[in-house]
Structure formats: C-alpha cells, structure tokens
Amino acid sequence: MIHVRPLHPLFVGEVAGIDTTGDLSAENVRAIRAAADRYAVLVFRNQRLTDEQQLTFSHSFGELEETRGTGISKPGEQRLHPAFADVSNLDKNNRLLARDNRRRLYSLGNMLWHSDSSFKPIPAKYSILSGRVVAPHGGDTEFADMRAAYDALDEATKTECKGLICEHSLIYSREMLGFDDLTEDERATMRPVRQSLVRTHPGSGRKSLYLASHIGTIIGWPVPEARAFIRDLTEHATQPQFVYAHKWQPFDLVMWDNRCTMHRVRRYDNSQARDMRRTTVAGTEMTAEQITSFAATESTDALR
Ligand code: OGA
Ligand code: MN
Questions:
Q1: pLDDT of amino acid 301
Q2: Number of structural domains, the chain?
Q3: Which residues sit opposite 280 in a β-bridge?
Q4: Which ligand is located closest to the Cα atom of residue 88?
Q5: Nearest protein Cα to ligand 1, atom 2
C-alpha cells in the first residue's frame, strides 16, 4: 500500500511505502499512476537505484524514450545507457564538464521552463529523475502545475487559446540563450513539430496549458505576436502559487507528468558534481496533426 502526502496546496505528492528498486506489483503500478494523475509530480525518498533498476521501474509505466537522435550528444560520448538523458554536469569519465564545454552550454537550456520532449511529434508522458549526487547549493528543480494555470485563466484568454497549435523545436529554446552554433545535421534532427496549446489529460480529465521554451511560433500567427503571447502565458503559469521547488536530497526519485507540468533547474555551482539521471516514458499520441511529410518520415523514428 502506498501513502501519499501532499507537498504543495495544488499538486506534488511524497510517496511512502514503495521500494522502487524491487519488483512492482500491478496494484502498485496502478496506485502510482493514479497518484500521478492526481498530483502530477511524485517524490520518492531514499531510492538507491542502480541504472538497471531505474530502467525496470520506469518500464513499468510504458515504453521508454531513447535520447539517441535528439540533442547534440554523439554516440561514443555518452556516459549512460541510451535510454537515459544524462542531465549531470559530468563527462563519460565522470569528470566535471569545463565551463565552455559545448554539451554543458547546450544543457543550460534546462534552466528555461519546459516540458520534456515537447519537440517530438509524440511527446513524453512521464520523466523519472534520480538524484545520485545532488548539488550542495542550488540546483533545485522547480515544477509548475499547468492545470491550475489553465483553470486560472480568464474566460476570454481561454477562448483565445482554444484550438491553437504551436511549433516546438530545440532550436528555439537554444536560440533563447544564444546557443546557435548547431550543425546542419543537428538542425535537421530538430525540425519543428506541432503541439496543441491546450491539452486534456486522459487520467484526470483536466485541461492544461501545454507550454515550453521550445515554442517558436503559433501556426497562422505573426511570430512576434505569437512569442509575446507565449511569454505572457508562461509568466502567468509560473507565478509562485503554481510552482513547487524541489530541494534534492541524495537518492530522491522524482517522477513527473510532462502532459500537465513544466519544470526547470535552478543555478548551481559547476565546480561540484551534480549527477542526475533521467529516464523517460514515451507518450502514446500526438497532440496535433503534423505536416504530412514530417509525420510520415519522422514520427516513428523520434519515438525510438
Ligand atoms: C530533466 C531536467 C532538471 C534538473 O531531467 O528533464 O530538465 O534538475 N532536469 O536537472
Ligand atoms: Mn527537462
């Protein structure tokens, strides 16, 4: 039996009564899903997982995304199994990345509010992040409840958002930080995909704003107007009452639902190791129709 204690007035539950390193019963899988539908972010304390155990736990909730083919890491450079997103500040020999290291600069994009894999035609469902070595100062991960943010919009804005489709790409979020030295090959893997601005969660039936720094425009809108509107909605959605800041303890495991939350990492001292390893449960459907040529050639690839 699991027990969930709320950590925030709107969302986020701390789950007790589960050992994520062991076999999960079907009943516990159901209970965790139900808790995720209600709380959107779940915190499991003191989970000393191996990579293998993290993969097994994550796989109980669906197929896993692979990071291969997204971002800028090249095959031989990776520290972790390809089903992991390495969000540490370490290289494959577990040494700190230099300040001007390209992968480090690229990953600073995680400091911008986002939802994982919104740049894929079928975006991610859950992300599961294990804090193996946590930053001694800073490095909190903040989460925003996009259901509550949607509910709090005035009626006119809800009407304006209805039916809108945004374009998401890693190029846009990196551009925001001035990271633009992407190769043509990298850009080719980052072609924009379409996502609905408003989603309805299948588990809770609640609507949410689907925002991310990966958004570059709204289909049919002039770009500056689209970006100004998205910025405005993002400011609304990330007001303090909608945000929970997670202060990491070693071996915390945090699981969040990307369909109804955004998150970002806060600043930390890069002279100290921060070893964070993420697995990602793939989504099962698109939120909007893709332009035909893209959907036909890329959508299955991006899932692997
Ligand atoms: C992620 C991410 C935040 C962090 O793992 O998807 O954005 O705290 N990480 O490292
Ligand atoms: Mn992320």
A1: 42
A2: 1
A3: 127
A4: 1
A5: 110
In the reported structure, the alpha carbon of residue 294 is separated from the centroid of ligand 2 by a whole-number distance in angstroms of 24
**Per-residue tokens: 263:** 């998150």
CATH code of 71's domain: 3.60.130.10
pLDDT, one tens digit per residue, over 263-274 is 999 999 999 999
Q: Where are the alpha helices (DSSP H) in the chain?
A: 26-39, 51-59, 102-107, 146-151, 155-161, 170-176, 184-189, 223-237, 292-303
pLDDT digits (tens, 9 = 90+) for 166-211: 999 999 999 999 999 899 999 999 999 999 999 999 999 999 999 9
User: What confidence category does residue 296 fall into, taking pLDDT thresholds of 50, 70 and 90?
Assistant: very low
Q: Which residue lies with its CA nearest to atom 6 of ligand 1?
A: 116
Range of the domain at 201: 3-303
CA triplet 270, 274, 279: central angle to 5 degrees?
135
